[in-house]
Amino acid sequence: IAGITQAPTSQILAAGRRMTLRCTQDMRHNAMYWYRQDLGLGLRLIHYSNTAGTTGKGEVPDGYSVSRANTDDFPLTLASAVPSQTSVYFCASSVAGGFNEQFFGPGTRLTVL
Amino acid sequence: GQNIDQPTEMTATEGAIVQINCTYQTSGFNGLFWYQQHAGEAPTFLSYNVLDGLEEKGRFSSFLSRSKGYSYLLLKELQMKDSASYLCAVMDSNYQLIWGAGTKLIIKP
Question: Which of A40, A48, A103 sits opposite B101 (nearest CB)?
């Protein structure tokens, strides 16, 4: 692995189903983030983690949950998907939650029908 | 509320210079970032400004005026590969990034 990987690349999901988006980084970054990107809108922060074992809510956390059991992995779970969660989801990481640049994964394109 | 404004779309000619503006109103300021995003790809970091003035990095430069809540990204000697969206983001008082919707830059031969 080099950088950040996300899985799956894309997914079509029936409304009401549970889905976990996976994110793994091998850069030993402390901070990790989940964003959604919708046409005409900026990236919006869903949840973040400043270090393993801690998580926080971003701008649009409702309907999503995260966990940070270790430094490398930061999965995002949709407990019961709804069509408004159709979006492109990006995972990102940075050395610390401050002034350092964020490195992004390739994204997951999710469609909820 | 927090707000980042940038033009939706701009068109420029290969070899020319283009300036992409960004204005912001945020709760606190801990720096301004510019990212490049090619269609269907992830954003990649271009520049970071926390003090007023111009930061130059090759063909790309970024300017910041904190008193005016204003930044611009200047791209010189445009190449076709510069066709992309350019995202402005401000780090607020909680050290979270607030993102603009992005400016789609179209380069014509």
Answer: A40
What pLDDT is stored for residue A100 in this prediction?
77
pLDDT tens, A47-75?
999 999 999 999 999 999 999 999 999 99
For residue B65, what are the β-bridge partners?
Answer: B70
CB pair distance less than 8 Å for A102 and B96:
no
Q: Which residues of A touch B91 (CB under 8 A)?
A: 98-99
Residues B1, A38: Cα–Cα separation, whole Å:
20
- Residue A84's alpha-carbon distances to A16, A38, A62, B30, in angstroms, are 12, 10, 11, 32
Residue B95 pLDDT? 84
Q: Please tell me which of the candidates A42, A104, A107 has its beta carbon nearest to residue B100.
A: A42
